[in-house]
Amino acid sequence: MAASKNFEYLGQTFQVQLLNQIIVDKNFSNVIIDVIEPGHFENKYFKIILTMVKEYYKKYECSPSFDTLEQIAKSEYPNELILKILMDTIQKIKEAPFEGSAFVQEKALKFCKQQELQKVMVKAQKIIDAGEFENYDRVEELVRAALQVGEGDNDTGEVFSNLDDVLNDDYRHPIPMGIDGIDNLLKGGLAKGEIGVILAPTGVGKTTILTKIANTAFNLNYNVLQIFFEDNPKIIQRKHFTIWTGVAPDDLSNHKEDVMSKVEEIKNEMPNKLILKKLPSDVHTMSQIKNQVRKMISDGVKIDLIVLDYIDCVVPEKNLGDEWKSEGSVMRAFEAMCHELNIAGWTATQGNRSSISSEVVTTDQMGGSIKKAQVGHVIISVAKTLQQKEMKLATIAITKSRLGKDGVIFENCKFDNELLEIDTESSVTFLGFQENKEEQKRDRIKELMEKRKQREQSN
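The chain above was modelled as a monomer; its predicted structure follows.
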């Protein structure tokens, strides 16, 4: 069967979705715009629309919005009938379903690769037929360039590129974690391609804070994948139900009808997904996890946020002969996956033995390799003394942030593991925290001296 010269064999729905992705997905348009041609489409108006998009891209280095596309159509096609068909087609493209977009992008890129290879093979054959063997390097260069279609480096560009996007107020589009005081310092939360790390000793509440992050993102209409290794899926489900209802996990069964009513209401109202995935500990590599995420994307679920509970349960791709190097490679693989798939990522890691009794957990108290700390865009630590556990309090610190201010401590903030409520009401710097400790010591000394004085007077 001869190779097809256009997308006709894939049908009109495919072509409508492809044009939609070229307009709405900037990363995809960056890699395909130079190699996709109007002639790849069968429909006359698809060809016109792609031509308008390519001309706009050539001038402004980005795809036009649908509103801009309509304005271009009005200015370039005054014929009433043609304009009406164009406007209807643009509207159809705008309303194209998102499901299967990963398949559409992959198929389109492979098609364009094939077209480029066919062109190259014709050129290469001419060089070979002419006996120009000294031009072998030229043939190799042509083939390599054709194979690199769709492998564009989206992170490389001149300092003057995409000025409009760069200077946009919401250029990062952050996903809040649901804790106002911290979100404000992180300039809204994590953006796609960024990763955050929760650092805490065992039993403090890593799963609590990660579940709250996942729940918050879902409530804001993001697609969330929450992966966990050590908890039963029903426990995680019940934690989410508690956040939505305010009913403690142990009391959910006593309020079954009310809980089911609330959960069904949320299920019916929310168009997005919160996917819970239980994996066995110390078995999966980050590549295997990435393949599972890719599968979800190809099935039509574009993951916006992945919550990995927790990174220490993921095994390295290969033994690097050094446990610390291997741990660092896992974190780097997590960051690379989030960057490649354009996903925001939160995970957690254990604190070392000294972190258990610390009033404030610092980055150097991270268990295992410190290389894990080097990769994260944000590191947030959680510490609890025995008294704080009893009072449902914690000390949360932003120990590292590439996004905003770090070195900030939220001392004695509300941290209720049972109801998954975290509230940061006050914030002080490390210096401020030390001053508070000195104040507490002075108050304690005054108290002891007063008691001693009272004893002396009574004697």
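The two ends are 109 Å apart (CA to CA).
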